[in-house]
Amino acid sequence: MLYIIRAKKMSEPNTPHTHNESKELSESKKLLEAVFNTSSLALHVLKSVRDGAGKIIDFDIILTNSTSARMAGRQVTGMRMLEGWPHTKEIGLYDKFILCVETGQSVDFEQYYEGDGVRSWFRWLASKLDDGIYVTIEDISERKIYEEKLTNAANHLKSTLDSVPALIALLEPVSSEGQAEDFIISSANKALGEFSNTEVADLIGKRVKDLYPEIYGGELMKKYLEVLSSGTPLSIDYYYREFKRWFSIIVNRQVNQRGLVVVAIDITERKKAESEQRQFEILTTLDKLKIEFFNNISHEFRTPITLLLGPVQDLLNSRAIPLVHHTKLEMVERNALRLQKLVNSLLDFARIESGRLDVIFQPTDICEFTTLLASNFRSAIERAGLEFIVKCEKTEPIYLNRSMWEKIVFNLLSNALKFTFKGKIEIQIKSNIKHVQLLVCDSGVGIAADNFTKIFERFVRIENVKARTFEGSGIGLALVKELVEMHGGTIKVKSKVGSGSEFIVTLPKGKRHLSSKMIHELNDQIHELATGDSFSREALGWLPGAEQYQSQPRKKKRSVLLVDDNADLRDYITGILKFQYIVTQVSNGGKAKECLENGFRPDLILSDIMMPEMNGFEFLNYVKASPSLSDTPFIFLTAKSSEEERIVGIERGVDSYLVKPFSAKELLAIVQSRIGRLASKSTNSD
Fold first, then answer.
1. pLDDT in tens, 404-447
2. Is the dihedral of CA 115, 117, 119, 125 positive or negative?
3. Confidence of residue 103 (pLDDT cuts 50, 70, 90)
4. Picking from 70-74, 296-300, 442-446, which range would have the lowest pLDDT averaged per residue?
5. Non-local CB neighbours of 473 within 8 Å, separated by 6+ positions
6. Could you give the C-alpha distances from 143 to 73, 110, 152, in angstroms and in order?
7. What are the Cα distances from residue 180, in Å, to 251, 260, 319?
8. Cβ distance 246 to 271 under 8 Å?
9. Which residue among 309, 444, 450, 484 is buried most deeply as judged by most CB within 10 Å?
């Protein structure tokens, strides 16, 4: 620069100069040339060119270095600026240079240039130099490439963070007396802005204390400060009371060690699911305990009911009991039957829920079987003054669980009679290509449309509806729905208040909808009705002047071996049979086997299944394996009457099942039937 200044002074007219000054000027020139030619920047000295009025009209490029020639691809020294760099006028740089000379304002200008084989970014710096300017040009192409990459990366990172549902923020500490006490937000993503109900730009620079006072005033702020001081990451689940939301918060120190990175993930739904899962597990455990309770005490429930119903029915059938006591005994019988139905239904529910209900489906003439079931209600329906119509279309055998179908039909007919006071009750079987339908129609009080779904829910009873009785547990139709669905079917209701109701059960034909394990092709199984008497007797109890069942004692004819571990039940059964049969009692299969091995040959064996020492199945195997005993009628007494158990028993040779609780009438009927068949067989043989 010294060289330029002095060269300018010496070029002025009448300016004397000494030999020393010339030498000094020469040395400055050499120094300047050395600096110029070794610089990586393109260096230029421009002198203003003015018109007659003193206005700058261009610049002379009076000095350049080798980098300038290399960068421009040619030598511009001695050229006018608009000749050497014509594009500077188009981009406004020429005007900036003039302003620099006139005002002394420096120039800092970045330009992308493409031309003369050059495609680069340049940075122009200019400062005033007397009546000219000193210009440096720097090739900043590499820097621009890096900046572009950084910008793209930053934009990509921002886009990524904005697409993340987690709340993300960079926090810088705010200190007081050298101690951090709060944080300001230096960066945040879109999710945090939405959570805070504000724009992201409005979060930047704000203090946590002002934005989230709950965090600032609580333990979480202390943990943030601990992470800042120790560098130990933090992971914590935090419930934000103000927003009623759960967050999983992860806090770490920034790479520069000066602030924190905070990520908060909304886990409210997860926490809710975990809570629901815990509740579900608790309820499941309680449910399992309930199911275990029902299953374990089924035997204890049914045996006392048998011992309750039996003597009461004996007394009702006895002519020695004065008529005045019959009303009270009938009340006892009616409520015992209700208790029996309720216990059976609850046990069915428990078994369905636990998956312990052994379900066997076998081909059944649904028309014949349904007609048989319906006949149990004819007496009660006709005594109520109602017309009872049974219509069945013949169809192919339908795979039914017969015990379940019995409960379905009886519950629907019982329900129809309960709410029908005049007109008719009709039961139909209809068939089409793919399905068979059971329809139970009545002309009763009807059901409001908003109760169509409710009536199939457990323990739901519709209030303020006219009925023959207000007794009921509210589980009948719920059980029907469960049993129908286990058949792969559906049930729906059509009804109008005051005009009656129609329940429609639809079952698929064939067996594709059933598991192969559930199918048993045995189609000649004798089905002993388990619940018909309790349903029909209860229905008769709703009617005025219902007739009582009568039983006729018979003469003793043959011998019965009774095997049961319950002494009371043995005595009760013996009391029923002793007027017609010789009854021999034993307490388990082992003792029964001893009797038979000692030569005793009963005409019929009546045995429990669950017994110590030798159970019913083991005793049955022994009897059927003996040539002299194999034809002896064998009847099982059982409380746990699973369908699969029945099938196994029949395959092993058992003749019938009598399910506890049973009535004296049922016991006598099945014993008489089996011994009668034996007597008939003996007569034919003779």
1. 898 899 889 988 998 898 999 999 999 998 999 999 999 998 98
2. negative
3. very high
4. 296-300
5. 342, 345, 459
6. 21, 12, 14
7. 16, 12, 101
8. yes
9. 444
